Amino acid sequence: MAEITRLAPSATKPVVRVHLDDSFWATLPVGLVADEHLRVGEDLTDARRASLEDRAQT
Hints:
Elements: E1 2-9, E2 15-20, E3 23-29, H1 30-35, E4 43-44, H2 46-57
Antiparallel strand pairs: 1-2, 1-4, 2-3
């Protein structure tokens, strides 16, 4: 598991940079972050991370 330690929205694009355990992990669409109710302090399992990565590619 990894903890979400930062959610950094872009000022120019509808994306959010997600940091896990204080390291950049992925850039996700704002809609996906909102739909999944991602929040700082939340733990992500490996399966959920993989699911988010898959959904971000579509």
